[in-house]
Amino acid sequence: MTIQTEPPRDSSFDDAVLDQRLTEVWGTKPTLWGWLTTVDHKLIGRRYIVTAIFFLFLGGIAALVMRLQLGGPNAHIVGPDTYNQLFTMHGSTMMFLFAVPVMETIGVFLVPLMIGTRNVAFPRLNAFSYWVYLFGGLMLWTAFFLNSGPDAGWFSYVPLAGPQYGIGKRSDIWAQMITYTELSGLAVAVEIIVTVFKMRAPGMTLDRIPLFVWAALVTAFMIIFAMPAVMVSSTMLILDRLVGTHFFNWAEGGDVLLWQHLFWFFGHPEVYFIFIPATGLISSMIPAFTRREIFGYPALVLSLIATGFLSFGLWVHHMFVTGLPRLGESFFTASSMAVAIPSGIQIFCWIASMWDAKLRLRTPLLFVFGFIINFVIGGLTGVMVASVPIDTQVHDTYFIVAHLHYVLIGGAVFPLLGAIYYWFPKVYGRLLNERLGQLNFWLAMVGFNLTFFPMHLLGLMGMPRRIYTYQPEMGWGPMNLLATVGALIFFASFLLLLFNIVSSLRSRTPATDNPWEAGTLEWATGSPPPPYNFARIPVVSGREPLWDRPNSLPVVTGLRVDRRELLVSTLVDAKPDMLLGSPRPTIWPFAAAMVTSVTLLASIFTPWAVVWGALPIAIVFTGWFWPTGVKEEE
Amino acid sequence: MRTEMVGDVAGLDTSGYGPRTLTWWGTLAFMSLEGMGFALAAGAYLYLMSHAQRWPLNAPLPNYWPGTVVAILLVASAPLNHLLSNWARAKDLKKVRIGLVLMSLLGIAPLIVRCFEFPALHVGWDTNAYGSALWFLLGLHTTHILTDVVDTLVLTGAMFSKHGANPHRFADVTDNAFYWDFVILTWLPIYGLIYWVPRLT
Amino acid sequence: MNARRFAQQIALAAAPALLAGCVDSQSVLNPQSGEAHDLARLFWIFTTVCSLVWVLVVAALLTLLLRRRRPDSTPETDNLEQQSRKTAVVAGLVALTAVILVLFTLGSFYTTRGLIAPGPHPLLIKVTGAQWWWQVEYEDSDPTQVFSTANEIHIPVGRPVTFDLEATDVIHSFWAPNLMGKQDLIPGHRNSLTLTADKPGEYRGQCAEFCGLQHSHMAFLVVAQTPAEFWAWRQAQLKPAAPPASGQQALGQHLFVEGSCATCHTISGAGAGGKTGPDLTHFGSRSTIAAGLMANTPSNLAAWIKDPQELKPGVNMPQVPLSDHDRGAIVAYLEALK
């Protein structure tokens, strides 16, 4: 190495100058070019979340149309073809374009702030991930508006989705949408793992990691081991449809149930990709409203890890009526029951945390209450459907529709809504209106339960899922009408949230750095945080660092200010280890996402697209990784 | 918020190898998810086999020679791969350049043999599910050789450029060698599955 | 929907008590076989325990709300005594959860074992699911005792019936909730389901696995009869189709057999041998048309033949151009096939 002149470091500047120098180095220019090239985790995380919520509204509107169609018997609002596309779009959108991405990318925004660093581990991969996700989602919805929306369900069972029965390009669109979203999901998982492992603030040992960060870490691991299953199966499906392989063709030695095994090996953990981060949000919000540390931190961490492991042993409970050997099924009953234990531990710990506390009953905490009340219903019906005999009756009925929405909306959307109210000031620098927030909570609570509780009864009254209509003599009309009214109320609660967001953004009162007087690191910096997150890297000595020493934050100094520099620490005890450069803004991730997306899209129509696409893909990735000699590479 | 300085980190290293670095962990994470993909593809093969009356289904046994040659070539590249990794750790630019050229050739060689390996399966991907599973496994592994060879070539180019003598480039070489070990290791079970499992049943 | 119907629906929605009596011929809550009773018993045990757990959780939330202290912003920590008391309570609750789950697992296991215990001498019925109807074949070691029907399954009460379940196109699921849990029909796989009906009655069933455009209209009827009635029905089904009894019916038969109907439908004894659609040999004896879509009345049948795509969009039955007169003859013929 050549001897250089000593570069400028943060130790030699006062706060005002330091802010200016760091903003110059870390800032994103407010131009279109800046927008396309940014690698700032906050900007990417924010646009990721906004896009996911946009897809939430699209999926919600699809659901609303279905609810109107089912509001009475023999309705003709949509026909069977549109209805089948609608429920496939609803499920696929909610799972692949909304729930999983939103939970992962709250992590993209929050994790670096919560662990006291300046960006994620692979910022360009993060940018690439967003663009691929966006293009995949747009492709799916464009196809839908061209009457080519997938129509074989979000689970795309063969043979219905296979070459013989899946007409047109609909199922190919679905399978390729999977490739886009899995690519982006896996990329985020990799960067979250490495960020949490290697970039935690000095002193943030394993037992001081904020619970949301733990949840994001466990989820990232699950994604790494579960998502390949759906990549493999959707690739097989595309190959069966496009080049005539026979993986699922029973006439040529293939097997129809192979699809279900692979899909649910991914699909069940997927529920926990959504639920585990949501529990992390809950655990991270509660202390701010109880004014003390969460009760049972080690038990909560172990519960997250246990849930992660157990979720890989449950997939067969989606297949209890496919005729698998009964003894094998009993094992899956036991494992599906067992997963209730870590969830139970979490619920008990949260209740214990709030017991005898100085509770501040603000909107985020209301959503925590709503979460527990609703999720416990979903969890308990989950225990019921884990039982093979009970499942043979309720499987594929509206009872399951009720169950899964209690788990996913009760267990994940309520925490998400709470989280929006809680972290909005950090993201946008404005507090949401509290009175509207409380109204939002009650409207959501009433609308949600009115929509989904009657569905339990409908299922028991014999109503199967995925039917576009039913005859009046079945007697399902009244309950369905009730559910439709509920759905309208529930939808209104989201419109109210939107109104609250828009009106709060226009407010002139900025939020303070720490409006909830919370204890974790993201509240130690500005609202919204400056581009470099922390002017000096904080040092941590507890689980709620900001409560340890009121009004003073211990920090380390010595990072360069003439380049994007990060502090890398050791895995277990988070000791400072290295100073590494972090990439500057670059267009390559966007270009790579474009080229990849076009190739994937074209491959729906001809397998040769993969061959033609290989060269441009090789070129953009070479461009991406080719050294440029900037200071960050020193 | 007022800050209180409790330490200075200015003297820390600005580069390193292996688990100290971010890239090494990133590589490991990608290897894990790809390894999971291999495991699931192998699982699908075994699942189809367990449901079949006979295996192979309506097809002659594959010719194991091209696959065996690939296995020998891959295993034979391992010692050089490790030498290269050590040279990179020692920041020996000259040896690294030579090593990378050789590793590029040792990466291209199995790809050439691969071209003969697909016909030697003696079954089309569209013949039956057995053929589909074989082509899928072989295709999956070929993609991995191909991407690593491209990566090695680009890295070779970089090492011959003015950016070569940079500690981060040497670290890249070690990570690339790490990934090549993965390519070698994943081939061995797939090789057994494609050529020897049908002969056992 | 007129205002009165709307009001009626609201009233029904507001009175859950009425629901149980609403429709009970396709309901988990009205078990009519030993198997369905076992399932219902397990269901109610789970429901009771789970409801209790939920009530306790909500009670805990309400209690902690009532006991909350006045908020201030100073962070505090639990003292050791509070900590250990909470730890003990949480540990106890976790243990209790584990005990409940173990009992639930055992209950499920023994219920399943009871359900799959082989009964003596079951009646064998092969049910094949197709888009979007059910082919029903009564199996017997004596080939003269074998016959086919569609969408309507008669079974004797008191005797175990084993359904062999297969599918030829996509996955379907056979579900008559009053009698038994569901079982999938999967191309390339063979599944079976055994049940014993308690008492005579008509029970509706419906495909429970999404199977395409008309998944909603793929119903069937299970008619449980006394052994004597079942025997009589079976003898009638074994006979070939009744010959036309009038000139109109004879024209109907001619049009059916010589026209395109016979390419898909079988009427044994009349020379129609198509296999892709339902067997219509005793069509007139069935109570519904098009897999439970409509009651089997002459006017419904005429409307169905006139435009099947209008009534069941996507159905594989094509629209066959026929004059009203000819269609009337076919309807008269089919309705006479008792």
Describe this structure in words.
- The complex is a heterotrimer of chains A (634), B (201) and C (338).
- Chain A has 634 residues and is an all-alpha fold.
- Chain A contains 19 helices and four strands.
- Chain A has a two-stranded antiparallel sheet.
- In chain A, a hairpin with a 6-residue loop joins strand 3 and strand 4.
- Chain A is globular, with a radius of gyration of 25 Å.
- With 201 residues, chain B is mainly α.
- Chain B is built from five helices and one strand, in the order E-H-H-H-H-H.
- The mean pLDDT of chain B is 96.
- Chain C has 338 residues and is an alpha+beta fold.
- Chain C is 39% helix and 18% strand.
- Chain C has a five-stranded mixed β-sheet. A three-stranded mixed β-sheet of chain C has the order 4-10-9.
- Chain C has eight helices and 14 strands.
- The chains are: A mainly alpha (634), B mainly alpha (201), C alpha+beta (338).
- At the A-C interface, helix 4, helix 10, helix 11, helix 12 and helix 13 of A face helix 1, helix 2 and helix 3 of C.
- Strand 2 (552-557) of chain A pairs parallel with strand 1 of chain B.
Assign the structural class of chain C, choosing from mainly alpha, mainly beta, alpha/beta, alpha+beta, or little secondary structure. alpha+beta
Estimate the helix proportion of chain B, in percent: over 70%
Shape descriptor of chain B: elongated
- Helices and strands of chain B, in order, run as EHHHHH
Radius of gyration of chain C, CA atoms, in whole angstroms: 27 Å
Summarize the SSE layout with pairings.
The complex is a heterotrimer of chains A (634), B (201) and C (338).
Chain A: H1 15-26, H2 32-37, H3 41-70, H4 80-114, H5 123-145, H6 170-198, H7 211-242, H8 256-290, H9 297-310, H10 326-338, H11 340-354, H12 363-386, H13 388-394, H14 398-428, H15 434-460, H16 477-505, E1 537-538, H17 545-548, E2 552-557, E3 565-569, E4 576-581, H18 588-603, H19 608-625
Antiparallel strand pairs in A: 1-2, 3-4
Chain B: E1 2-8, H1 22-51, H2 65-89, H3 93-120, H4 129-160, H5 167-200
Chain C: H1 3-14, H2 34-66, H3 80-116, E1 123-130, E2 133-138, E3 147-150, E4 152-156, E5 161-167, E6 172-174, E7 183-185, E8 191-195, E9 201-206, E10 219-225, H4 227-238, H5 247-258, E11 266-267, E12 272-273, E13 288-289, E14 294-295, H6 298-306, H7 308-311, H8 324-335
Parallel strand pairs in C: 1-5, 4-10
Antiparallel strand pairs in C: 1-2, 2-3, 5-8, 6-7, 9-10, 11-12, 13-14
